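Ticket closed. Logging final result for Mutator family transposase.
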Amino acid sequence: MTDEKTGPAGGRGVVEDLVASGGLDGLFERIDSGEVGLTGADGLLPALLKEALERGLQAELTEHLGYDKGEQAPVARGNARNGTTVKTISSEVGSFEIEVPRDRAGSFTPRLVRKGQRRMDGLDSMIISLYAGGMTVREIRHHLESTLGVELSVGTISRITDAVAGACQVFCVSGLFRGGG
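Final structure:
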């Protein structure tokens, strides 16, 4: 199977190649020994997600400005890179900080991590799933903190679950959703 964007078998093919070559053996040894964790503040997965998001944000800014980082800004455009802003993101693999690039004109609007966004969409889905499974808001908060190292307030979790509960009421009242069999 070939995908135009990711090549043969996508990301899975890359992992299979690394496994076959032994390229992941050292990493797995470090994970097995406890030297490297997968999730949480210092975990491998948040670090990889951070790198991927920052690269994507830089690519978005490059497209917006019309020149690559390190190149001279075209004088005619009148806009240039202007450093970064640190933002903490909570995700299903843990919390981490990213550096969001800025432009001098303030006209750059990132799409990968939207302005004001503090949580990755998968974390909201996880919270909703835990709530639907019968966990209280405080139990969800404790679970996220102890397993993923993600610290969200009870109020934030309540707002997420309330939004879903409100949507369910609209669907049920309007007849768009019929429970049962």
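Residues 137 and 157 are 6 Å apart (CA to CA). No further action required.
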